Amino acid sequence: MVAFLNDEPAPVMTFPAGERCLSVRDFSLAYGDKPALKALTLEVPRHRVTAFIGPSGCGKSTLLRSFNRLHDLNESAVHQGRIELEGRDIFARDLNVSELRRRVGMVFQSPNPFPMSIYENVAFGLRLERRLPKRKRDDIIEWALRSAALWDEVKDRLHRSAWQLSGGQQQRLVIARTLAVKPDVLLLDEPASALDPISTLKIEELIRNLKNELTLVLVTHNMQQAARVSDYTAFLQQGELVEYGPTDQVFTNPKRQRTENYITGRVI
Ligand SMILES: Nc1ncnc2c1ncn2[C@@H]1O[C@H](COP(=O)(O)OP(=O)(O)OP(=O)(O)O)[C@@H](O)[C@H]1O
Question: Ligand 1 within 6 A of 56 CB?
């Protein structure tokens, strides 16, 4: 066993204030009396891809969903501690939760386009937000579909049903729909786990390219995927942050014995 590996609490990795997008301080969340996250402290850097990995039930999705307060919808969920988006407390009384969810968009495991055309899917969020002149709306829809690497495949059939697209195309459409309202952060919860290998590679390429536009946080069971697309990786176990660092370091030179056990397959 390598001497430096130990199970001390994870050292806090910090970023200069100008590079920090999300900041989690001593954050705990329980469903009723069952703790899911235990006093987590971590920072998510702006315009980077940060991956959350760890065994099933370790709290990855719970942490991701906390970033846009999806737990408000679950009466049994209680939290303590603080999360800031660009320096602002997301639990502040005067915070507008709809605006938070516009700024922090989310894409789930199974593609969920609405039963309407490709065009209407991307326009959906824009219609709710504000009345835009058609020309301007068309420009944003083209921009969002291009950003989601889907424009060339759908530009000649924008008014056909979104359900005619393949699963991978549907997931890129959902990403375009989320991008259309210009979020600052994109949360991705296992975005490729329902897709075939080629569609998965397209989503991964998209994730890498999108960091020019916004900050991405990815939950994945697939460690190769985390290694391929993320800049930073956080390893969680039983609601605790075990290790957080640059992805290369976490995968090739982990500082914690528990991380090494997980990435080498000794714990699943
Ligand atoms: N809505 C809920 N109500 C009650 N308990 C929940 C709820 N959602 C999650 N949990 C529990 O909280 C813990 C963390 O779950 P979470 O889904 O965040 O983990 P995860 O790491 O994302 O798991 P997986 O990889 O299986 O999706 C688990 O013990 C889970 O059973």
Answer: yes
